Amino acid sequence: MAGLVLELQRDALDMKVPVADLLRKALVVSRKLDLAEVQSWIEQELGGYGDTETPDYRKVFGQPKAFNPYRGWQPIMSEDPKYMDALSERYLAQSVAELEDLSQRDSGALTMPYGAKASASIRKAIGIDLEVVLFVSRQDLVKVLDAVRNKVLDWSLDLEKRGIIGADMTFSKEEKITASQIHYNTVTNIGTMNNSQLQQNSSGSQVIVGTDIATQVTAIVDAVFSNMADLKLSPVAKDELVAELETLRAQAASPKPKTSILKEGLQSVKAILEGAAGNVVASGLLSSLAPVIAVVT
């Protein structure tokens, strides 16, 4: 028999061996050698990090987005690069088995919700009360899994270098003594951000929007115009709605939009849409309109 450590190296080099299975064998080695620090790291990788601090190699970057009831997920933007960096950076807390499962799925976006405080801060910053999450790439999950695999490989190579092999599934007294004298720094650069859980999300984003009021107003105007035919308004109501929308568009395009005019125009559009009672399209537009009115007022 080759020995536990050499088997561990072989499995680390075999990409067909799931990282979760690799860690379970590494856990056997760490327990037999009484390496509490390594054992703790492996158990966290297998069980997830929960409320504990997360290793830096589990940091991922994604695209922050807000959910518009009518337009779906739309990217959040800011002219402040530091703020965007803070929004785009998160840490994965899931177990490696969960990450492997998510990385192998073929459909649906991956999203990470922000904590309650962070979400409230983001909504305040963008000036609109919408659900906000971070969309991340499946490739980022693969990078995390590769980092774990490489750490196990490096650790096993170091053990072999020091003569620790584990023949016949056991370690000699000398091997254990040697192992106990090694300082293991398996997990470095601990992250301090709150952990977030990944979720499977089936909807994507088609429209990129800014976070200023003028952009939000323009988006609403475009949405109403695009669905004008489906509102089934009377000729008089339709003419009134078009006039209000054109006024809103002109104000939104102005270098200094007048809040009073925006407020009045949005309220008028709201009243006209409410007059189309029972119309599904009107109801959807009203849902999108409400948070924009709240910001302007």
Considering the chains and any ligands shown, give keywords for the structure.
56% helix; 3 domains; 8 strands; three-stranded mixed beta sheet; 297 residues; alpha+beta
What does this protein look like?
With 297 residues, the chain is an alpha+beta fold. It folds into 3 domains: 4-54 and 142-180, no CATH class; 56-139 and 193-201, no CATH class; 213-296. Helix content is 56%, strand content 11%. The protein is built from 13 helices and 8 strands. The chain has helices spanning 4-13, 19-32, 36-47, 81-88, 96-103, 116-126, 138-161, 173-180, 213-226, 228-231, 235-253, 259-275, 280-296, and strands at 59-61, 63-68, 72-75, 89-92, 109-113, 131-136, 195-196, 199-201. It has a 5-stranded antiparallel β-sheet. A 3-stranded mixed β-sheet has the order 1-4-7. Strand 2 (63-68) and strand 3 (72-75) form a beta hairpin. Helix 2 (19-32) packs antiparallel against helix 3, helix 2 (19-32) packs parallel to helix 7 and helix 11 (235-253) packs antiparallel against helix 12 (259-275). It is elongated. Residues 187-194 and 202-211 have low confidence and may be disordered.
Strands of the widest sheet, in order across it, are: 3-2-6-5-8
Element order: H for helix, E for strand: HHHEEEHEHEHEHHEEHHHHH
> What do the pLDDT scores average to?
83
What general form does the structure show?
A: elongated
